[in-house]
Write a structure and sequence with these properties.
Elements lengths: L1 E2 L4 E2 L15 H25 L4 H20 L6 H27 L5 H10 L3 H29 L7 H30 L5
Antiparallel strand pairs: 1-2
Helix pairs in contact: 1-2, 1-5, 2-3, 2-5, 3-5, 3-6, 4-5
């Protein structure tokens, strides 16, 4: 399929029609539906595993999926700003995904935070976790991703000094997060585990 405006492939995804007032609400709502739908699908998995920590394992990859979906639905904008936003979010999402999945799998059973919440809510935790963990995380993920989604949907423009400084800060932040996560993992590995 070709995007008639750009005469380039659209990866087989038909972009959502943009209205004359350039309302992007359908794109944002589709991203919310995708994010929320995946979190809702993880809830029965958590019941089966008896571990709501699966929500943490999906937190970072979900950003990449939500922003990638917006990029596809917007017709794969190829301007430098959109590609910069897409690449920065993808790099952050992939890096944090490895960290979060590794930490989740390393736990002996459910994470201590969730065990405390489970204990506090008692027998009703299984159904309340749908709202206090999964629906909440899905909505928060979408809210946090709104800035990146807006960057993808903005009118094409050349990048300026602010974009260059912003990208540099994002890359520095990525490096700092990587070092900090490695230090935290080393610290946690060196101390005795408490249950």
């Amino acid at each position: 399929m070709l995007d008639p405006a750009a005469d380039r492939p659209t990866l087989g995804v038909r972009p959502i029609e943009r209205t004359s007032d350039l309302s992007d609400l359908p794109v944002y709502m589709t991203a919310l539906a995708i994010s929320g739908g995946i979190f809702l699908a993880l809830w029965p998995v958590s019941l089966w595993l008896r571990d709501v920590g699966v929500v943490d394992a999906w937190w970072a990859p979900g950003f990449g999926v939500a922003v990638g979906a917006v990029w596809l639905l917007a017709g794969q904008p190829a301007d430098i700003r959109a590609l910069l936003v897409l690449c920065l979010v993808a790099a952050w999402s992939v890096r944090l995904s490895f960290v979060m999945v590794r930490r989740w799998r390393r736990h002996d059973g459910e994470d201590r935070r969730y065990r405390l919440i489970r204990k506090g809510w008692g027998a009703s935790f299984w159904w309340k976790s749908l709202f206090i963990v999964f629906v909440l995380q899905g909505f928060l993920q979408w809210v946090v991703a709104l800035g990146a989604m807006s960057g993808l949907l903005a009118s094409p423009a050349p990048i300026g000094l602010f974009a260059v400084v912003g990208a540099a800060l994002a890359l520095i932040g990525l490096a700092v997060e990587t070092v900090a996560d490695a230090q935290l993992d080393a610290f946690n590995a060196a101390r005795p585990r408490a249950h």
